[in-house]
Amino acid sequence: MRFDIDEQSRILEMAWEDRTPFEAIEHQFGLNESAVIRFVRQSLTSNSFKLWRERASGRKTKHAMLRSSNVSRGYCPTQYKLR
What we know:
Elements: H1 5-16, H2 22-29, H3 33-43, H4 46-57
């Protein structure tokens, strides 16, 4: 799949977000978890990829099936507050 620069940026942003599950990325962009991992690997330096992979691997919120039922949205409630 080909993505424009804005879509690429959004995929990376969603991948880094702790509360955005891989299933949301797949729903929006058609990339399953393994495709997201490949995409991130190609988009980041090797050190940044290692940091991301370590972070994403330890997050239950990155997988919809493992999420607590208390997590009902993909972002922190203070993330989009207007100032």
